Structure formats: structure tokens, C-alpha cells
Amino acid sequence: xxxxxxxxxxxxxxxxxxxxxxxxxxxxxxxxxxxxxxxxxxxxxxxxxxxxxxxxxxxxxxxxxxxxxxxxxxxxxxxxxxxxxxxxxxxxxxxxxxxxxxxxxxxxxxxxxxxxxxxxxxxxxxxxxxxxxxxxxxxxxxxxxxxxxxxxxxxxxxxxxxxxxxxxxxxxxxxxxxxxxxxxxxxxxxxxxxxxxxxxxxxxxxxxxxxxxxxxxxxxxxxxxxxxxxxxxxxxxxxxxxxxxxxxxxxxxxxxxxxxxxxxxxxxxxxxxxxxxxxxxxxxxxxxxxxxxxxxxxxxxxxxxxxxxxxxxxxxxxxxxxxxxxxxxxxxxxxxxxxxxxxxxxx
Length: 347
Description:
Keywords: Kinase, Metal-binding, Transferase. InterPro entries: Carboh/pur_kinase_PfkB_CS (IPR002173), PfkB_dom (IPR011611), Ribokinase-like (IPR029056). The chain is α/β, with parallel strands linked by helices. It has one domain (8-38, 47-331): Ribokinase (UDP-N-acetylmuramoyl-L-alanine:D-glutamate ligase), CATH 3.40.1190.20. It contains 11 helices and 15 strands. It has helices at residues 57-67, 82-91, 136-141, 143-147, 160-172, 184-187, 204-211, 218-231, 271-285, 289-304, 316-327; strands at residues 21-24, 28-35, 47-55, 72-76, 96-99, 110-115, 121-127, 151-155, 177-180, 199-203, 235-240, 244-249, 254-258, 334-337, 340-343. The strands form 3 sheets. The protein has a 9-stranded mixed beta sheet, sandwiched between helices.
């Protein structure tokens, strides 16, 4: 399978309309290994390889959005190998895949997760050298694609120069941008100028890594969101593990939403990706920040009760049903006025 840069006149379909969402970032192979019994360091542990599937933050978010009946495209880098062919073939059912030009012959990225018997992550490894081969010029070559989208999701798999170029491009073309961190180390790839980032999603450890400070309590977490605001981010969402989600906006509104327990947790690997997809759906539909986060949590609840990184149970009907189950109501559209949300009148 030979992948090359795709130009506008080579596409089978026209560039996405403003109704489409574009995800930019990682697409790799996911391998999950479950430890039998109690995990022990410095010795051999009995295990079983559970499954092999498509992964990558941007790709997983794109598939979740596709399952939520959203029109979505994926701009990513895969190798000229069997793994890359598998990813493209499996992904095209839910999204339009636009492979980036890669210099040399790097291998497709591979993510390996080691899980305990409860499905909780112990440690993970990531072979992602392919993303270091992407240059900002490749992003600029895709300006028509980016500028035509309704919203862009960017993960932090690429280099700082590529990430900064993408943020600047979205800012110049006024394209709403969601940035999701991939890990604590890759969080540091974000530039210090974050003007143009509409929503930043990360966890506590990733925020600490980027800011260089320790966040010990709720007040320090809130103070951290204000630093991100000063750097240009409009809305900050901090995921606090399985406990809660903290959100804060430049207009001063903020809040904390606690996670709801689910009957049985099978696998948490795709939880963060599901959260981002759910919140993007909420953003696209025009919901306020609280309900944007609740859509994210509802999507997580559907995902972690299955053993798949992207759950086959994800659908619009199931998402709204889970929302109602968790929060006892259907989501309502609100109007923001002077720091408060008001429910729109029924028409």
C-alpha cells in the first residue's frame, strides 16, 4: 500500500463542507494485554493478548464521532505497511481518511496497553516515531481542507512546530479548535502561544507537566485554568481521573462535574477519547459547557462497560439515553447572558 499526499483534484469527493469535523493527529495500532492475577515488577507475569484494533487519539475520536452520525475526516500519518493498510481500511467505514506525506519509510505507530484483571491501565508503551517525520509544510498544504471545516480536533502526537502551525492556521481562518493532550510528555509540545485554542482537554498530570507546577487541590486546579486562559485558551477542561471533570471558561464561568459509577468497568483504554467525542458533539449542538462535559461523561460510560477502545454501543440514541440515565433529564439548549445560563423557551 503506497500512501502519498492527496491533493484536492485527486479526491473522490469534494473537500468537506462546513458541517464536517476534521480530526488531526494519531492513528495507530492498539494492542491490549491483560495480566492474570496480581501484577509484579521485575519478574515475568502471566498474561493474555486480548485483541488488536485501530487506535490513536484523533482516529478514535473520529470513529466515535462517526458512530454519533457526524460527518468527520481524519488527517493522519500511517506507514506503508500491513498495519497502516489495516488502519485505513477499518477507519474508512466511519470517516474519510486523508493520509499525510511521510518522508522515509517509518512504521505505523503501535500502542501497547498492559491492563490488570479489572481492565485498569498499569502501563503503556507507544512506538510513534512516524509522527516526528511530519513537517509544518504538510499541514499548510492542507489549508483548504482545514479552512472548510466546522470544527477541528488536534491531538499532541505531532511536533511542537506542527502543532503551533495548526493552531495558528485555525486561528487565522477562525475555525473552532479543540486540543487534546496525548500524554504528560507530549503535553509539553504545546506552544506558549495558545491563541486560537477554543477548548483544551487534559488531565491533572498533563497540566502539571506543561505548567511546571504541582496541583494539590481544587483551588490550584482552578488557578491552573486561569493560566491557560492567559495563554489564549478560551475553555479548559481538566479530567481528574475517574473522579470528576473541572471546566472553566474565559468569561469566568466554571464548575465541577462528578463521574457517575457504572455497573461494571471492563476496560478504560478509550475513555478519554470517548469523552472528547461526546463533548465535541455537545459543542457542535450548541450546548453550554456543563452539558458539553456531561455528554463527554455519558460517552465514557458507554465505552468503559465494553472491552473495546471504541465501543460498538456508541450511537446518538444510546448517548442521549445514557445522558438521561445519568442526569435524569434530556439535555436542554441554553443562552449565555452576563455569566449565567438561561434555558431557551420552547418554540
